[in-house]
């Protein structure tokens, strides 16, 4: 069989025949057209004539193909099938339901839906990328230093007052609030609150506030020690525009403050008993001590931790009122309160 | 069966596929299977003529496939679609039966083919031939169904609503109707039986090209396979059948 077929190179009917043969060999094209068109077609008659009279090698093999095709033609009824009434009724019912449901033939195919969703995802990613680039990449937005005047952002060099607590609370300060403060070990610390004063979930506050009010720009700077920094104890370095404080947390009506709690420092705006509003982002405090500074002028406040900017922007204090600087402890429990203390407080001028 | 339905070649130019459908319909009639006609919504041609000026000259029965599809698309015309169904259901169901060989599969896929063709009618684009578009849907569904069947071979028990099966599902009965020559009957039966053993790609081109009477160009449109490759598959498929018919072992090569 193989040797017989191998001799048919003239017609291309060998076993290694590929698709390209049909494009170049006239007889092959005629034959395959005849095979598809079937007995009785012009192509069929021509192919049969070629096989009979063309002197082709391997004519028997081609005759076999034509015979197979003829038998298929005779058996063309094989597996002919029609729909019955039930089949058609069911289909037409489904189509009527489809039409009544309002489907208009434009329903999204799964592939198209995936394509649309993918496209939207790409567009969203591109937009997000543009936004990130316009903001300077992945780095968090820098503190809005431009919102405070340059002199407030500069280092304040003139020391107006330095207070330490080796001999008690200095005369420039007075204590306030329900939470008592004490001086031990040269530090200002919170006293342990009385059990009956601690209300569940509420903070009890107390501290010291400057006796004299100031109208020009100044800074209050506190050196704070935090050995274990319990979460139920916070220290606040604040500037208020009046020296009257409420009960409980002992907040003034308006304050701009730096706030240390746990191992984090942040800037807050206080409006009486309302929940303090955090300004900017909280920063971690790396060591067991932090120098927390709050600088104010008539309109702006700058909060720094160890000389690094935490927040700069407008404060909530009334512009025409004097400023009172202070230190406040806020507690929600009585454990380990001596782990936090204020070692020194300074008031500075630009 | 009225002439317009029996001659789906009423489409523009009278395509081969429509001719095949017509031939299938005639065969069924000859075979004397159930004589009940499929239930399609009645076609009110008077109403069609009043539908618009362009429709007046082409009542449903004489409209081309593409015109009917256009009406189905624009007006969700179920009567126009029913006419297309009438023209093609036999060709599509027979194609599925020849390719899959299982009536339960044909039943469920056949429903899905015509339902999807209606549901996604907006995706049909003229001047593509309607028959090519419909056979593409049929082929894709059959392939997907076969894949699922391999993963989950449990068959659904469904009520069969198909006709003409008994008369054409057996190769020997088909051969017996084709000729009185016993030797030829044997050869016809052998060829038909051997068809089931062909590689799927060769069987597909023979079913579409010979049984469904589609041109190479149409098969190319349906399968996405180049015509030259289809010719090659046709050639080798028939050669294989010829050898089986002659009692030779194909593997002798």
Detailed description of the structure:
The complex is a heterodimer of chains A (350) and B (253). Chain A is of the alpha+beta class. Chain A has helices at 2-6, 19-24, 26-37, 42-53, 59-74, 85-100, 110-134, 150-153, and strands at 82-83, 158-164, 173-177, 181-184, 187-190, 204-210, 218-226, 233-240, 255-261, 264-270, 277-284, 289-296, 300-305, 308-314, 324-331, 340-349. Chain A has a seven-stranded antiparallel sheet with strand order 3-6-15-8-9-10-11, with no helix packed on it. In chain A, strands 2-16-7-12-13-14 form a six-stranded antiparallel sheet, with no helix packed on it. The radius of gyration of chain A is 46 Å and the shape is rod-shaped. Helices cover 66% and strands 1% of the residues of chain B. Chain B has 14 helices and one strand. Chain B is globular and about 55 Å long. Chain B starts with a helix and ends in an 8-residue tail after the last helix. Strand 1 (82-83) of chain A pairs antiparallel with strand 1 (162-163) of chain B.
